[in-house]
Amino acid sequence: MEALNILFLAIFVLLASFANAKVQEHEFVVQATPVKRLCNTQMSITVNGQFPGPTLEVNNGDTLVVKVTNKARYNVTIHWHGIRQIRTGWADGPEFVTQCPIRPGESYTYRFTIQGQEGTLWWHAHSSWLRATVYGALIIHPKQGDSYPFTKPKRETPILLGEWWDANPIDVIRQATQTGAAPNISDAYTINGQPGDLYKCSSKGTTIVPIDSGETNLIRVINAALNQPLFFTIANHKLTVVGADASYVKPFTTNVLMLGPGQTTDVLINGDQPPSRYYIAGRAYQSAQNAPFDNTTTTAILEYKSSPCPAKGGANIKPIAPTLPNYNDTNTVTSFSKSFRSLREVEVPTEIDEDLFFTIGLGLNSCPSNFNANQCQGPNGTRFTSSMNNVSFVLPSNFSILQAHKLGVQGVFTTDFPAKPPVKFDYTGNVSRSLWQPIQGTKVTKLKFGSRVQIVLQDTSIVTPENHPIHLHGYDFYIVAEGFGNFNPKKDASKFNLVDPPMRNTVAVPANGWAVIRFVADNPGVWIMHCHLDVHIGWGLATVFLVEDGEGLLESIESPPEDLPLC
After folding, report:
1. Per the confidence metrics, is the pTM higher than 0.85?
2. Which one of 2, 37, 142, 531 is least enclosed by Cβ atoms within 10 Å?
């Protein structure tokens, strides 16, 4: 009888959780919209005329149904960054990987359920450089009745860090593709779409974040910048980190955050300072040597409600300025990234089925004989490129990889991506010029369903070492270790944290260093892993995992939706 009661209780709890789960329907219209920044108006591509785009707020367990209609002049797709997409790979969004793009005038409906995720994620275009302006926050609250593993904040504020060009971003990348040189750097960084007081024509729109004395508030920070890791701080206020990439962490306190593009960090702040106005600020962490970068600073204002109101001269009170690290302060970045631990002990795969070693970095292609000098404006008459394991990734153009896989179409991709570098070399030393030019290919790695995977991500010093934010679609992974120099399995395995490593979807691989990640390949489909500096994706710093179906329906990817775009 007791067993029966327990069974009924379990069924009741399950049904109750389904009953609370909602289906949320949204419409995204991608369109050109006049946006005025830095004294000039650009016809920016936006969603629903908003920049940044709409914030989506859901509960763990909810289903999202988002119809995207493309009224712009460019192809577009939308990626739901960090959503696991269990069995719903058709909704993941990277163009020519899981779908063909939505052509101008066409539409596509993304459907997926949030399963076991809570915290801050975001959505963005995954086609050319459209994500410069096509992005927004995706906030996942706990299931109804569940609570945060920290004190409930009085208020919550998403902060999206962005990057703004005083030009059409698509023109910027097209020019770089024609010349083979690095694209022009951005003209400003933004907080919630606004550059802030330190730029021309920008003070009026500066983002204001309210706080009251004695409050504890949750700030959800998202680095949506296209190509730049960023430092973030709030003048005179301590930041208590409680989550990252929609996973809770053991709380730790810091004065400054560093987020690579794609990463999110949830922090609690206390209204424990004298009521006034305090600058919130973001600026570049620049790890690549001798590379030009945007060295400006974006600001918003943390404003105490009890500070003098603007009408009575409060707006004339100059906000208190923060201290930010030097642009190249790798030590601060290292101590920050080493502070992350999962909230509780976690089950990290200890037996490994697929032990992979991927070099990541830049390269230079010799000028092809049929190109003229204007098309080879990289260093010494070359063209910039990028690769993993000496393979520069090329997206298909007539099929998506997932379609080709499910339909058995030959000739779209090959399954011979190398499990380790074809040539072993001193990755972070003085690399022979003969290794600077990668091969091109659409090569993927096949993984059996349920296989336990370890990947060593090794930066190289080819052209320049750099901190690369590496993002894996369809998965969260544990970062079990990171370090500098060349990874040494004998020496470095002893440093692995297999107890409470942080779970992320994007890892900032240290400049001239390495990171080791682990995950179980339990989500069938085709999943791209790429550098989230968009300039590097275009150059080929990406690869794809093809995770085979397991046994039965629940271990297999769903059938493609009927409105899946055709190439």
Report:
1. yes
2. 2
